[in-house]
User: What shape does this take?
Amino acid sequence: MTSTDSKTTGAAAAAPILQIKDLNVTLRKEQELIPILHHVNLTVHAGEIVGLVGESGSGKSMTASAVTQLLPGGSKSLQGSINFCGEELTTKSEKEMAHYRGKEIAMIFQEPMTCLNPVFTVGQQLEDVICTHQHLQGGEAHARAIAMLENVHIKEPEKMLKAYPYELSGGMRQRAMIAIALSCSPKLLIADEPTTALDVTIQAQILGLVKEAADKAGAGVIFISHDLGVIAQVCDSIAVMYSGEIVEAGTAVEVLTTPRHPYTKALLAAIPGFTPKGAERLELCAIPGMVPDPREHMDGCRFAPRCSVCGENCTAKHPPLHVAGDGRSVCCWKEAEAGDTAITAS
Amino acid sequence: MFSFHYIRNQIIHLLLVLIGVSIITFALSHVIPGDPARMMVGDKASAATLARARVELGLDRPLTEQYYKYVTGLMHGDMGISIRSQQPVSSELKKFFPATLELTLSAMILAVIFGIILGVVAAVHRNKWPDHLCRIVSLIGVSTPLFWSGVVALIIFYKWIPIFPASGRLDTFMTPPPQVTGMYILDGLFAGQMDVVLSAIHHLILPAVCLAYVQLAIIARQVRSSMIDVLEEDYIRTARSCGIPTRRILYHYALKNALLPTVTIAGLTLADLLSGAIITETIFAWPGMGKYVVEAITFLDFPAIMGFTMIVSCVYVFINFIVDMLYRFLDPQIREVDK
Amino acid sequence: MTFTERALKILKYNRLTAIGAGIVLLVILVGVFAPVIAPYDPNVIDVPHRLGAPALKHLFGTDEMGRDIFTRVLYGCRISVSVGIAIVCVSAFFGILFGSISGYAGGKVDNVIMSISDMVLSFPSMVLALALTASLGLGLFNTMLAVSIVKIPVYVRLVRGQVLSLKQRQYVKAARTFGAPPFWIIWKHIIPNSLTPIMVQMTLGLGDAILMAASMSFIGLGAQPPTPEWGAMVNSARAYAIDQWWYAAFPGLSILVTVVGFNLLGDGIRDILDPKSKQG
Assistant: This one.
């Protein structure tokens, strides 16, 4: 999409790794149907880092889980399309999905403390993933594991392999986790708040590793975070989620410098010392209210109750998706009304 | 693996517990009963006989001295003389111990293996029929009086469908194998006498299954609930997101974590099995310590009862000592804490 | 939700708890009205009709003295249930007493109490109960006493844990700074607040207490013949059980049903009083 595209060549570069189109997800909990994702569209290219940002409960992680078909709970319904390298994932069986997970699509999670199995060594867990997908013998898997740990800049890989997770610091565990995720050279890496639980200095190192994965290995990355500051550091493009919808998307530069959706503006204003160009510094740095319960049905914009510029239209009818140029979209009545002439729903 | 510090602490702890056990058994045999001497000589004995018995038992001495004598006696394997048989209690218990051990260990193996299988299957198929089956089996298991299930088993499998023998450890005219462990199955194997082994197993099945059933229920319950907890852990999500096959996640990644708390339960299980053996042995006429103690009760054979209590408690304490070590061996996190 | 609301909801949705409550109610009613319902006198001997199979006249058959087993099972209800309740109450009472002293006083007192309860716990409970009864003397009362003593440490540990955590609460700290006497604090703050887990433990322990008391009677320590206690009945039935299946079957089945009832109810009460705990 941006400069990273030039690194990959040929026709393959043009086709995105992942294309989510109009994805709706409903979970069934006990007798209740809970819609958690509404009309989500997302595209990830090779070597691109797409930031998915929003408050907790906005559906970021659910989007990621939908891609790997690891949604929580019992029965669920999925509508729309998730296209991964030309394959439709929504219709895949559990067995077929297992082939993708870890090999083609890898994940890193928020809690390095609990994400590794406490009763197995890092080596056992890492080599198991390698053996599952690559059919290597013990010695080869071991060599591969060491190479992977060196990849994430671990100085004593042999020692690391023999260590149990509790013997490692949070940062080291997250590195181990990244090594496991990258061990089979996935085409897509989903990083679900990988730095949230870490110290700032370690954060930077982990972000560096994620960037390396995209730049060197050419993997597409979905980077999930509630922290726009972190997103700003690594991402090429950004999608802002609110209550199960993507309310604004675009390149990182555009979204961060000229936010259009009131929610994005509010999020940016909530970062201390970060005032985007053209946006007024809002008085209140915190956004009042809370993300609505996904069970709650709303006719209008789901952000309306907390929006500072909420109008009549906003509470009555759901705003249309306003597509402005290449990959830039906003879902807000203000945008639709102001830029009437510019609307061309392509 | 086990630091010196840990082993030293464990041994000190073991000794303290054993001292505690000896204090309680001492209190039970010397302090609480109205008059042990009267018990020994019987109601009709004359005052002079009674007084002689008191001196003989050392009851005229201060308690501390009596305790000292009691403990030094225990250390030399002296548990007193059985009132009923006039034999040393220790040698009698020694005779009956292997039979109880054979029964209890077999029951434990049965309970652990089938309890784990049932619990895991129930957790994996949560709220489906295997889970309901597990629930019913464990509810009935913890609610059934052992003495009743034994009798019912005899009525069904001895009287109605005669496929199992009612009593004893071997067929009537069979000679026990040369004694190595005292457990007929093992000894039979050592001696290569397969007919003895088969007969021993044949006799063991009914009592062992009855004894195991209650514990099986408890273990299944425990495994089920810890397995359900483990399956909700983040590292299971990680394993799934790495594309590890479901079967391997369940039986390799999750099971090892879920079994850790079960190891502790297995230690407690043994206490119940030893208690249960008292009843099961009585019903199946299994010549072990349990049957011995019930007979001792009918004769009010006090030294025998106390000797039994002492031995069983020591076995229990010792097994828990081993279980604790095993737990540390299995859980790398706890291993670390001791260092 | 209030207690009653939650209780009603659980009874409505959790059929097992309702069944448990039903069984317990039935058992208690049978126990109370045994003399009214029972067709015969539990101890009247009728040798000509000894060891009779179940029939209309004798629903559960007769035993070796010709006594009506059905009548004896009904009377047995009284004994087993009241023995169970007595055991649980006695051990809970002393458990609360020692547990709160131990937790509140700390230091040496705590050490002594905890060591003693650890000592008791290092025996298999039934074996210790057996030895205790043997030294106290045979009989139902001593058995009850022995089983209660053996069960005390469970409550001591439970209550002590509660006290230790409650002691850290602000209102208890405040009360202590005002110089409120320890017993007042224990009575006013600690006992009411630790009642939930104690109640749960008590109901869950009831089935176990009944089983244990019956087992003790079975091995000849507890109730002595001709008392119509279920465990003692199965014991006297042993010689006849193989040929006269009904003799052992019915008293044992009554224990099973009663204990199932208490266990189901106990699980239910745990869910009502302690909503955080997972439903089994």
Q: What stands out?
A: The mean pLDDT of chain A is 81. Residues 200-215 of chain A form the longest helix (16 residues). The first strand of chain A starts at residue 18 and ends at 29. Residues 24 and 38 of chain A are 5 Å apart (CA to CA).
